[in-house]
Amino acid sequence: MTQKPKPLQSIKVDGPIPAHLARSIIEETLRAAILDGRLPCGTALRQQDLADLFGVSRMPVREALRQLEAQELLSVTAHKGAVVAPLIQGDATETYELRILLETAALRQSIPRLSAADCQRAAGYIEELEAQHDYTEIGRLNRLFHMALYGKAPNRRLLRLVEDGLNEEERFLRFNLEAMGLGKLSQEDHRQLLEAAQDRNVELSVKLLEQHLNRGVEVITRYLASPAAQNRKAVR
C-alpha cells in the first residue's frame, strides 16, 4: 500500500537551533517551504510535529505560526489548527482592489524618499525579468521589483500588508503562470512605472500602478474562469 507523502519530510533542519533564534528560523524555514510549494495549500501544521522537527519547545513554534498567519500564509481552522492558506481563487477582484489601495499608498509615501540606488536596483530586477524563463523565479523577481519602489515608505505596518499581498501573488504565479499560457511577459508596465518614479511624478506613478494591477486582475480572473484552471483545481 502506497503511503501518502508527508510534506514536513521535505524540510531539512541542520543541527540544534539556538534558543534566541528559534522563532525567526522556524518562521523563515516554513515561509520558504510555503512559497516554493513544499508545503502545499491545505497542509495542516501541528505544533508538536513542528517542535519535534526543529528540536524546540512548542512556544517558538506557536510564535512563528502566529507570524505566518499575520502574513496570510496560514489560516487557522477548527479541528485542524494552522493550515497553509489557499492561493488566490474566486476573490481575485477583491484581493486586487485591496492591493491597489495599499500599494498606491505605499508608492506615494516612498517616491519622494527613493534614492538612485533604489531605482537602479529596481531597474536590475526588470532586466532579470526580461531574461527569466523560470516561472518559479518570475514571481519572486516581480515582488522584489515592486518592493524596491515601495520600500522607502515610512509606514512599516503598511509595508507589511503590501508584502503580504505580493507574497500571495508570488505563490499564485509560481504554480499557475505556465498554465496561464501568457508567453513572454512584457516589462513595459514596469519600465514606465520606474521612469515615472525616477521623475518623482507621484500622480503619474500611481496611475500607472493602478493600470498595471487592474490588468493583472483581468488576466487572473479570466484564467480562474477557464477550463484549464478548473481542471488544475480538480486534480489538486
UniProtKB/TrEMBL annotation:
Keywords: DNA-binding, Transcription, Transcription regulation. Residues 20-87 form the HTH gntR-type domain. Transmembrane segments: none annotated. InterPro entries: GntR_C (IPR011711), TF_FadR/GntR_C (IPR008920), Tscrpt_reg_HTH_GntR (IPR000524), WH-like_DNA-bd_sf (IPR036388), WH_DNA-bd_sf (IPR036390). It comes from the Bacteria. PANTHER family: TRANSCRIPTIONAL REGULATOR, GNTR FAMILY, TRANSCRIPTIONAL REGULATORY PROTEIN. This is GntR family transcriptional regulator. It comes from Pseudomonas monsensis.
